Structure formats: structure tokens, C-alpha cells
Amino acid sequence: MPLAVINRDNAEHYIWGNGCDGWHLVRDSNLSVIEECMPAGTSEVWHYHQTAQQFFFLLAGQAVVEADGQRIPLAAGQGIRILPGTRHCIRNESNEPVRFLVISQPPSHGDRIPM
Description:
The chain is mainly β.
């Protein structure tokens, strides 16, 4: 398969939550890389994954990841690994949008258990 440059302009786009955007940068059966953008004051719902591990990496802005009773503030250039079975959510409590990568192995779609 030929190599191709991937960006938000040519990636599959979707909308989730309350006005949040996502772009599938890599989407195959072994790996998922998604760029997401959350407007100020938005959050995802509490959930966990049975088999997928995830790595959240902030590209711009500030966010709070809540995982198993901990509040972990993250700034651009910082990330956190979430292991399977860990209850978690990400929140944008700031007044600015936040952009981040979510890397999941295996892909987490279809493996999300809401709480």
C-alpha cells in the first residue's frame, strides 16, 4: 500500500458529545489514532473499555482526565495512559478549545462501556 499523508482535511470526520469533533487519522483492526477537539466547557461521559488501552496526548489547550477517582490536569505536550477496565472521562474545564490525540490499541469503538 502506498504511503499517504494524513491530516484533518482528508481524514474521516465525526461529531460526538455536545459539539465535539473527531477525525480518524488511523483506523484499522489493530490500532486507532483519533484527533479530537472539545469546545470550552464540554466533557465526555464516564466509561471504561474492556480490552482497549488508550493514550490521551494534548496538542493544544488544557484538560482534566478523571480516572478511578483521580483528577489529572493535562496541558499541551502532556499525556496519560489509560489501561483496560479503568473508569475515565476527559473534561475541558477551560475557556478555550482543547485538541488532543486518542491512541487506542486495539481500537476502542465497540468496546466502550458507559457508566
